[in-house]
Amino acid sequence: MSLNIQHLENEIIDQYLYDENPNRPWIIGFSGGKDSTMLLQVVWNALRKVEPILLTRQIFVVCNDTLVENPRIVRFINETLKKIQEAANDQQIPLIVAQTVPKLEDTFWVKLIGLGYPAPNKVHRWCTDRLKIDPTTRFILEKVDENGEAIILLGTRSAESTNRAAQIKRNEVKNQRLRKHLLRNAYVFAPIKDVTTKEVWQYLNQVAPPWGGTHKELVTLYRNANAGDCPLVIDDTTPSCGNSRFGCWVCTVVNKDKSMEGLIENGEEWMEPLSEIRNFLVEAREKPERYREKRRRNGSISDDKWGPYSYETRIEILARILEAQKEIQATENIELITHQEMVLIQYYWYRDNLFHTKVSDIYNNVYKRNLNMSRHHKNTKKETDLLYSSCKEEPKDVSLIQDLLALQKTKTLMIKKRGLQADIESRIDLFVEENQQKGEIYK
Q1: Share of the chain above pLDDT 90, in %
Q2: What kind of fold does domain 5-108+126-241 have according to CATH?
Q3: What confidence tens digit (pLDDT) does each residue in 14-67 have?
């Protein structure tokens, strides 16, 4: 190889041993793609040449899971991370694997189905901050707070694009290997920034990973997907990963998901339902007159701006996800949406005064079994009988009381009772308004 691996390893060893601040931890961004894999492998092999007694610096291998990553890639990455941690322990490399995930209220499905956020596009990429940048930023800042500073090791390369090369050059610290990062007291170290794409593949094909096995599966994934990888995202300058191999399967920022289509064409037919959902999300975003509300979430109405997805659209999207999940689970152990997400989606529907169709109704219709959305599920029939008995003179009040109880129970599950009174008052106001339209009078 024309690539001077010895030089790279020496640079890493020198930075590790003779850093002006030996206490600041290293945070290695790992996506499972070719660049981050080469980065981790070069760092690992360099540290194996250091006397064990000198390996005192904390090293974290951080992988971000948006919870809507391509399931085929998730399986591969999780298996790789397990091997990495086990091998690090066996070889006494001071390395800890960490995975970051978005907050529950920031997950893709909670925002899209729960609050009706339209699918992202190139102008409004609301997903990047919430799913990628924020989770990893929280981890980095946590380590900065603990140690004063931190060094982030990234597999970014100048050969990736002209813009990336300019950014690397612009942020370099003169006469040092590090460049400043937007985060306070954080620096970036990019050991392979001058490595070409050809050299990356040459290295991976010739040097086995120190955590065991080969790179055969990684190479196969790239070959089958027709695209590149999605790096760890820690700022908003990173382009969309929709065209890449290691990205989100729901990505609607690009017009066509070539990587998922490539995988399907190369034997991953079980992913076809995912492709259909992704295409429907694009359609729902591009046809607002059919799928979205005129009234925005702040209550305003504009002729040229649309509001969130309609209740019917949210119901349809959730049904499509659950139907796809059920179909895929016949052969693959994959979960597309979590129980916790569905609980929060239901809570947001209640807050929007959407009570007609519940999340559990949709789930039960698809899976033909009852979804327990509440700790108080066993008391439901007893409560219902008691309510009908108590509301003999006003049976229409039963549905109102059930909705109010559902609000309270959902708040309890969320361990978040703030705003409960306002939600209850809003539901009562809606109930009064509906019945006044029928000629009923309420004080």
Answers
A1: 58
A2: Rossmann fold (3.40.50)
A3: 999 998 888 899 999 999 999 999 999 999 999 999 999 999 999 999 999 999
The neighbouring-strand residues paired with 98 are 62
Backbone angles phi, psi at 350, to 5 degrees: -60, -45
Residue 355, pLDDT > 80, answer yes
Q: Which of 357, 354, 402 is nearest to 379 (CA)?
A: 402
CA 195/CA 204 separation, integer angstroms: 13
CB burial class (10 A; 0-12, 13-18, 19+) of residue 18? exposed
How much of the chain is in helix, strand and coil states, percent to nearest 5? 55, 10, 40
Give the tens place of pLDDT for each residue, 363-413: 999 998 877 665 444 456 666 677 667 776 666 666 666 666 666 666 554
Q: In the chain, what is the straight-line distance between the N-terminal and C-terminal CA atoms, in Å?
A: 84
Return the H-helix or E-strand segment holding 153.
Answer: strand 150-153
Structure tokens at 265: 């064409």
Strand partners, 189: 153, 178
Question: Hey, is 248 helix, strand or coil?
Answer: strand
**Helices and strands (H, E) in the chain, number of each type:** 18, 6
DSSP tag of 94:
-
Domain boundaries, the chain: 5-108+126-241, 377-437
Rounded Cα distance, 181 and 187, in Å: 5
Size of the chain, expressed as the number of residues it contains? 443
CA 328 to CA 359: how far, in whole Å? 20
Q: Any residues with CB less than 8 A from the CB of 345 and at least 6 apart, and which?
A: 109, 110, 113, 114, 318, 359
**101 alpha carbon, distance to own chain's centre:** 6
| Distance separating alpha carbons of residues 334 and 70, to the nearest angstrom | 11
Q: Give the predicted TM-score (pTM) of the model.
A: 0.80
Which DSSP letter does residue 24 get?
A: S
With H, G, I as helix, E, B as strand and everything else as coil, classify residue 6.
Answer: helix
Q: Which residues contact 148 (CB under 8 A, 6 or more apart)?
A: 21, 23, 24, 185
What order do you get walking across the sheet with 95-100 strand by strand? 95-100, 59-64, 26-29, 150-153, 186-189, 178-180
Q: Is 26 helix (H, G, I), strand (E, B) or coil?
A: strand
119 class by beta-carbon count within 10 Å (0-12 exposed, 13-18 middle, 19+ buried): buried
> Are 268 and 226 contacting, i.e. CB atoms less than 8 angstroms apart?
no
Q: Report CA-CA distances (Å) from 260 to 50, 73, 80, 305, 323.
A: 42, 11, 21, 32, 19
- Tokens representing 250 are 């729901």
Q: Which candidate, 232, 58, 31, 231, places its Cα nearest to that of 136?
A: 232
